[in-house]
Amino acid sequence: MEVIKNITNRTSLLNVLWDIQKKRRYISSEDMVKIAKEFKMSKMEVEGIVSFYHFFHQSDVGKYTVYLNNSIISKITNYKEIKNAFEHEVGVKFGHITTDKMFGLFETSCIGLSDQETAALINYRAFTKLTPEKVKTIIYQLKAGVSIDEIATIPDDNIQYTPNEDKTIFFKKFKPYLSLKKLANNSPENLIELVKNAKLSGRGGAFFPTGLKWELCKIQKETQKYIICNADEGEPGTFKDRVLMNKLPGLLIEGMLIAGYAVGASKGFIYLRAEYSYLKDTLEQTIAEYKKQSWLGKNIKAQKSFDFEIEIFIGAGAYVCGEETALINSMEGKRGEPTTKEYFPVEKGYLGKPTVVNNVETLCAVPRILEMGVDKYLSIGTKLTPGTKLMSVSGDCKKPGIYEIEWGMKLKDFIKLIEAENPYYILYNGFSGECLSEADLDREISGENLLADHIQFEFNDPVEYARKMRGVGLRSGGSFMVFNKDRDLLQILKNISDFFVEESCGVCVPCRTGNFLLNKKINKIINRHADYNDLVQVKEWSNIIKQSSRCGLGKTSTNCLLTAMLKFPSEFEKGLLAESDFNHSFNIQNATIEYDKIINEIESTYGQSN
Q1: Buried b / exposed e across 125-155, counting CB within 10 Å, b at 16+?
Q2: What is the Rg, in whole angstroms, of the alpha carbon atoms belonging to the chain?
Q3: Average pLDDT over residues 338-347
Q4: Please, is 543 exposed, middle or buried when counting C-beta atoms within 10 Å of its C-beta (0-12, 13-18, 19+)?
């Protein structure tokens, strides 16, 4: 087998699987046997890895593989019409491929295009703002042999708003190499101190102090160290990293270079989610340009010259790989499952070596701090959270897109800025964040006066909550989805629950089983079959999952549900109407799904019926 011949390094396993998936459109049992032999693994282990990732398949997915986004922003746009249009134009239902194996239709979760819904990927190229007419044209062109690259959409950067020029950090004019030229006057120790003084913290949602992370890596005695950029932006509703990599790839490269110099790392990786594969060429071209200018490779100019290389690693579709230890496992050719924190990555990370894992936005902030100076950076934002924050905005507003705002802006002012249309529910920080309401409007977007994370989930009275939380900052990971009063909160929560059931890696029982059972409870409430005891159990189970899960996925999977129950109790009480002549659980489409499957199988075997 050509694609794996002479390759035995386990870190190349996902690349090999991608090669096979793209060339043959699936990974067969025979392929897995050969891979197992070459990599000295069992076939069962290889199959476990293949089955773990969303974009690896064990049966043909068609010459043109369509992945339609089924997350909530897509659902409230025109998802149903687009789904029906694809099925009508190719002649099969989602979850199937055409008899000639030309088209395969599949659903997937958020693909980082929430500002341009309804969106889909076809062979990992983006198609945005779809209409039934656009779908008809796309399928016609593909059938006619038009190259997919000719008709794919280039996603809009869609930067709606930044502060005045004096307070713009990320999206001010970028001058390549400016920050790197300052390395001549800074030692690695100076750079770490600079980042610490700037109070920069992780922008992926964990908010761990960046300078401290770098320092903990630098003091390790190992000579080989790594910098990993976590570009696995899988949080539904978030797309800020997509815009940064597309519009300012050089800023990211410089951030990684500075991090490598500071901690003594000689190799960097960009772990790019498969949904952003179309950004790979842009990133590789930027890397090549920096090499050409001698800012990558050997003997890079600094106070003390250093070596640094950057390589792109493509993920394969697993939300949990956004967690740093799961990401590292994935890069090492394993299932992307989080590990127990016996060692932190800065001690033993990639290949057992000290590793810094930073998010795209975090790394892009570093060159800007170096350019503008710490004092200027600290003059923007708030005392605890200086600088600006990138917000990915989608949903019921007139101006979706990316916003760069100064930390400290009031939530009510931000809602006016995006021109939200009759806002009622707000999903803040994505599906793993929280549900905001009118009770939160006077809070500011910042890290000021933060309560312990668990406190906000212990209130039972919305009035008490509003009084206690008024002065508490809203620390943001970057996702902001707004919904008006016409939207069904329970259906939103069902979409979130479906996501976590699908994306749980399955290692720990609280997350795997707990989220599945909560999903059934939400169904029960939606179908008006619930009673007050069900609501009590939902709260109890949600807290057990939060407290007992192994990683951040499980610990945050019930946040939106718990905060929604606190702030919108009447929405849940609607599901307690046990006395009803109408069976809400009956659905004619679900009732006939087995019939449709049988008809599809017959047509696939014997051809279309007359």
Answers
A1: bbbbbbeeebbeebbeebeeeeebeeebbeb
A2: 25
A3: 88
A4: middle
Question: Cα separation of 319 and 288, whole Å?
Answer: 29
Q: What residues have CB less than 8 Å from 31, skipping those under 6 apart?
A: 1, 20, 24
Report percent pLDDT > 90 for the chain.
69
| Six token digits for residue 353 | 């070596």
CA dist list (Å): 384 to 201, 421, 475, 593 = 10, 32, 11, 54
Q: What is the DSSP letter of 42?
A: -
**DSSP 3-state of 125:** strand
H/E element, 178: helix 178-181
Mean pLDDT of the chain: 89
Work out the average pLDDT over 480-495: 94
Establish whether the linkage from the previous residue to 118 is cis, with ω within 30° of 0: yes
Q: How far apart are the first and last CA of the chain?
A: 43
User: What one-character-per-residue DSSP string does 358-402 give?
Assistant: EEHHHHHHHHHHHHH-HHHHHTSB-SSSBSEEEEEEEESBS--EE
Top-confidence range, 55-69, 527-541, 542-556: 55-69
287-308 pLDDT, tens digit per residue, is 999 999 999 999 999 999 999 9
Question: What is the rounded average pLDDT of the residues 12-24?
Answer: 95
Predicted TM-score of the model (pTM): 0.90
Determine how β-strand 401-406 pairs with β-strand 355-359: unpaired
Q: In 10 A of CB 52, how many CB atoms? A: 20
Element (H, E) at 96: none
The contacts of residue 608 (CB under 8 Å, 6+ apart) are 91
Query: Which structure tokens are listed for 32?
Result: 């897995």
d(C-alpha 443, C-alpha 424), whole Å: 16
Element (H, E) at 8: none
Distance separating alpha carbons of residues 88 and 103, to the nearest angstrom: 12
Kindly tell me if the per-residue pLDDT of 430 is higher than 60: yes
CB within 8 Å of 603: residues ≥ 6 apart: 99, 609
| Residues 251 and 205 sit within 8 Å (Cβ to Cβ) | no
Phi and psi at 401, nearest 5°, equal 140, -160
Q: Would you say how long the chain is, in residues?
A: 610
Beta strands across the sheet bearing 103-108: 103-108, 64-69, 120-122, 125-127
CA 220 remoteness from chain centre = 30
- CA 264 from chain centre, in angstroms, equals 29
Residue 459: its pLDDT value, please?
63
For residue 62, give the H/E element and its range: none
Residue the block writes with tokens 């996902």: 14
Task: Please give the Cα distance from 271 to 244 (Å, whole number).
Answer: 15
Contact 346, 216 (CB under 8 A): yes
Can you name the residues that pair with 107 across neighbouring β-strands?
68
Burial class (CB in 10 A: 0-12, 13-18, 19+), 116: buried
Answer positive or negative: Cα dihedral of 165, 170, 173, 175. Answer: positive
Half-sphere exposure for 559 (CA within 13 Å, toward CB): 21
Question: Does residue 116 sit in helix, strand or coil?
Answer: helix
* CA–CA distance, 377 with 604 (Å, rounded to integer): 62
Task: Read off the tokens for 370.
Answer: 């170096």
d(CA 610, CA 601): 15
Pairing of strands 125-127, 401-406: unpaired
**Cα 158 to Cα 168: distance, rounded to the nearest angstrom:** 16
